[in-house]
Amino acid sequence: MSLSLQEQRILPAIRKMKDLEKLLKSSYTYIVLLDSHIGQLKNIVDLGRANGKKLLLHADLIEGLKNDEYAAEFLCQSIRPAGIISTRGTVITKTKQNGLIAIQRLFLLDSSALEKSYTLLERTQPDYIEVLPGIIPHIIKEVKERSGIPIFAGGLIRSVGDVEQALGAGATAVTTSNTELWQHYQQRS
């Protein structure tokens, strides 16, 4: 499944409900939910949907939910977000089986992690890859070219220059919790 980002170059990533409230009034369609509690998920996703927003849930960061294929099945069937982000291949596979957007999060710490990531990507075939840290343009370009999968850049994105470098290297969008960057790019969208 594919996101129709409609030129949405920033994927705002929220940790607090007050940030969601701000974004409900914004022009952004897709929003990443980082930290959450299992008991709040349905209401948050429903609130977003009622306001024309599509939430991408980070399954690894949901308190009260073990991050495995059963949790992914629960999220897909009961919560029904637009998509799920995870570092776990089994979660990505289950998300794809349920027809939701599957985003494989990769922490590229060294060459070994990068090579293991390529093996994982061949197995899971996610819809998108989120590369962390997102401030390494030449690696963003390499992962996109080698995998053929659209890239989101995230982690340590602190400035407009960081965003522009990631996009220039081939990232489809940048995930960030930096509210100043949300505001900057919303004005341009």
Automatic annotation (TrEMBL):
Q: Does the keyword RNA-binding apply?
A: yes
Pfam (any one): G3P_antiterm
InterPro entries reported in the protein's UniProt record? Aldolase_TIM, GlpP
Q: What is this protein called?
A: Glycerol uptake operon antiterminator regulatory protein
Which Gene3D superfamilies does this chain map to? Aldolase class I
Note whether Zinc occurs among the keywords: no
- What job does this protein perform? Regulates expression of the glpD operon. In the presence of glycerol 3-phosphate (G3P) causes antitermination of transcription of glpD at the inverted repeat of the leader region to enhance its transcription. Binds and stabilizes glpD leader mRNA.
What UniProt keywords apply to this chain's record, in alphabetical order? Glycerol metabolism, RNA-binding, Transcription, Transcription regulation
